[in-house]
From TrEMBL:
Signal peptide: none
Chain positions covered by the region annotation Disordered: 72-145
Pfam families in the record: HTH_3
Molecular functions (GO terms): DNA binding
Database matches in InterPro entries: Cro/C1-type_HTH (IPR001387), Lambda_DNA-bd_dom_sf (IPR010982)
Lineage: superkingdom: Bacteria
Organism: Paraburkholderia phenazinium
Domain HTH cro/C1-type: 15-69
Record's protein name: HTH-type transcriptional regulator / antitoxin HipB
Amino acid sequence: MNYPVKTVAQLRPLLQGFRKAAGLTQAMLASRLGVTQQTYAQLEADPSAVSVERLFKVLRVLEVEVVLAQTAASAAEPAVSEKSTVPSRPPKAKTPGTPARGMSLARQRGTAGPAKAVPKASPRPQQDTGPKRQASKTSKAKENW
């Protein structure tokens, strides 16, 4: 008998039905698959969570064949060509005045002064040597995050 399967939710009752029709318990089928009964119970409870390879292994043990058939409605539709008919998205336009990546707006316009040397960060963070000096009254206190 043929059973058309259109959703993954239909697999659970079909697997149970084929197993019971073969006169097998979950433990017996699990033994033939080389797994525990609990492992097979999980597979049968949620077949959408297993790989297609494992599902096919179960179906082979149950002597169930998978047949893919084209429906009449889809057979009447023309085949999709390899080239997509959807136009490709044009490249994003650059907003005028937006600096290039890694370049300041002043440097891009040529109005920046000479480049300043940036000291390299030390490879290891410095150890905390004790309490920090209190900020002067004129500077604002920074929040600790």
